[in-house]
Amino acid sequence: MKIAINTGGGDAPGLNAAIRSATLSAIRRGWDVVGIRNGYGSLFTEEPFIPLTAEKVHGITMDGGTILGTANRGNPFEMPYQKEDGSWDLEDRSDEAVEVFKLNNIDALVAIGGDGSMRIANRFSKKGIPVVGVPKTIDNDIWGCEISLGFDTAVSTATEAIDKITTTAESHRRIMVVEVMGRYAGWIALHSGLSASADVILIPEIEFSLDSIAKKILEKEEKGETYSIVVVAEGSKEVDGENFVKGKVLGQSEQLGGVAEYLEKKLSEMTGKESRSIVLGHLQRGGTPSTSDRLISLRFGAAAIRAIAEKDFNKMIVMQQNEIRRIPLSDVADKMKLVPLDGDTILTAREIGICLGD
Question: What pLDDT does 81 receive?
């Protein structure tokens, strides 16, 4: 048996732990293991694979990032190419990718990634590639999985940053707007904002009103509380508004950003208070994975190899009620796990007086 491991999409703390666990579990069964360099796009290069050995993965559990490299581009089903007139378009090169797997005698693929990676994995499975998916995203928005690898560390990083920003906000009596990741789901903003005692938490699932936010800040001012903390997910939108988009590259998802800067300006105008904004950005992706992320990643990696050994293909490994389970990739593709608006965490935020922008 020879397997390949791919890490796709944005990096996340815990990827190396999952790679190590899957590699060692496979080697103990006498299998050969290779990793795909820098995502699926390298399948069309001369050296797409990195041999993975026990020595290669030694001591990487505590390391952030991924030793394989990753990319947000290179989807074999939608590869950018330049036309004769100089413009760019997308083409399906998945048959070439499948041929690369076959020529290199790959018997199964462990696809570690987020919702986009799971869509690609599902499409590969339909082309005959035996696949097992491992859920990775700091956004925690993969359907069917209670928690994905990388989320716990990202939330801890964001919470610590908000804690530090709070002390300077209090010293200068400012409004501080903190933008965290979360394209279409507000898990990071909600969990970090609640944990750090933010005054306002804005998530993509709830369109916000500037009047509602300003009212909360001015009510605090009347009580003698001279500073406010606003935590906003990058994908949050104003009522009847659109996403704040920084740019779009063919073959990639649109790049979101700018909502914190917008709120900084508007809230300063509406409240008369000095405001500042900060974007945590890729800080949330980096650093040493937490104990929770290390353990989840190790469990996911080993579970993926067990699924392959049992020939239970075209499944994604998930955590449900603290148990490892498998669900069909076809159930996950093209779905997203959003923050439930009637869930306990949202109710907790409302009951302790946090403004959610509505």
Answer: 86
- SS3 readout for the chain: CEEEEEECCCCCCCHHHHHHHHHHHHHCCCCEEEEECCCHHHHHCCCCEEECCCCCCCCCCCCCCCCCCCCCCCCCCCEEEECCCCCEEEECCHHHHHHHHHHCCCCEEEEEECHHHHHHHHHHHHCCCCEEEEEECCCCCCCCCCCCECHHHHHHHHHHHHHHHHHHHHHHCCEEEEEECCCCCCHHHHHHHHHCCCCEEECCCCCECHHHHHHHHHHHHHCCCCCEEEEEECCCCECCCCCCEEECCCCCCCEECCHHHHHHHHHHHHHCCCEEEEECHHHHHCCCCCHHHHHHHHHHHHHHHHHHHCCCCCEEEEEECCEEEEEEHHHHCCCCCCCCCCCHHHHHHHHCCCECCC
Is the model's pTM score more than 0.70?
A: yes
How confident is the model at residue 356, as a pLDDT? 98
Q: Which of 11, 63, 115, 139 is catalytic?
A: 139
139 carries an active-site annotation: yes
